[in-house]
Amino acid sequence: MKATMAHPLRIVAVSGGLQRPSKAATLAKHLLDQIADEFPCEQRLVELGQLAPQLAGAVWRSQLPDTVEQELAAVEQADVLVVATPVYRGSYTGLFKHFFDFIHQDALVDKPVLLAATGGSERHALVIDHQLRPLFSFFQARTLSLGVYATDQDFAGYRLQNEALLQRARLAVQRALPLVELARHARPSAAEAVVVARNKNRLFSQESAHSIAMNKEPAFHLKSICFDENYQPSDNTRVTTNFANLARGTSRQQNLRNTLRMIDNRFNDLAHWDNPTGDRYAVELEIISVEMSIDAKSSNAAFPLIEILKTCILDKKANKRIDGIAGNNFSSYLRDYDFSVVLAEYNAHRAEFGTPDDFGDLHGKLFQQFANSRLYKERFGKPPVICISASTSKTYQRTGNQHPVLGIEYQQNELSSTDQYFAKMGMQVRFFMPPNGVAPLAFYFLGDLLGDYTNLELIGTISTMETFQRIYRPEIYNANSAAGKIYQPSLKHQDYSLTQIVYDREERSQLAVKQGKFAQEHFIKPHKNVLEHWAATCAI
User: Is the entire prediction scored with pTM above 0.90?
Assistant: First the structure.
């Protein structure tokens, strides 16, 4: 018998089933109907299988189309949730988790949630308590005490037929009624909800500004993935990452094998002592993604700040691993924004190329905050070193200095825009052409390049980054003759050899522009005031 209430309940069911028809959706709809028999309500069934093409490729909520955004909003605004998922590999479906990753972490606080699942047999019944309940506990939702699990034997086609299961469903709903009624009476009116939402948004904005302005360490988060011959860029990996460009297409695995072989060969060439067969060492690489949250209390809105490489050296003779240097390659959404958006707009109507006075300030301060953070120091033992190509617009002259590993030092005739940009990151630069190399590399560092690192650590960086430059810029780093006493790198140089690795340099340039615009839309514009306030008040 239905209770009489002024406002109908909003009940939303989410089915994680990927097919249609779906047993999970059938179970969810049945539970919806059971609750509707008790209270006046507005029902909504969200079938994730129908949203998959629009949902699966998104990394940020802002990338989702309106159809998916409406379903997320419906879940967040519901008075009561029913969730049902098929069991896949012992858990809920990946699409189910992906959908709830976009739900704001405070949106489900104290919301009653009825848990349900379907599986091939009874052996998966614990998925409700071991997988679903912890997920919604994170959201601080009120998961109802009795869940409903159905096996294939409980269905006739896609219709529920088992009386014992139907009885359990009725019991689960009956047990839920007190909480459902409480949720109904606790629900604010539409006008109150608008006021609450506005106040919450205002408070969130103030807390975010206070958080990033006052905390000495913004909320950084690290993710890592092994770069080996089995590396496959995930949808979340930056498409501008040079490693990702190498690991796509028909030559993907051969590219990776050849790259890793080149790195190992170059390492053993430089670490030749006590290494008569030239195969004592191997280099293992880890891609480290650094994300930053504007709201220090949450990683939900984390923005991908930078991406670096971490080397590890395997000494096969001593049977031990030696930590290498963090940094090496350097990718950054914000740097792409500065160079492809800010510079382009600043010089659009200028007769002579220039840079704004504050060019790179925000990026530099954020990088220094990360490099000085507790998170960095706990994860990495020494300051970062970034190794990239020398500038094609500058001239280099040999000095009298020669290092046993770094090689011959060169001096640049004047600072490049890249040098000035890295200086705002707190980094100095020196240029060395390693033994048996053909062109100087630029080494950007925070401490003492020659004193802070062992020879093997430096060789790990040299062998890795010189190999990447031979692939990216063969005209310079795979030239058939070495740089002379006075040298200017040129991508128009014709006397060079190609590697066996397929790499699309033009694609990389185009993607850098796209990623710069992405940073503008998803980081700079939404948080402009907060970021400007932080940059102005942050003391490095």
Answer: no
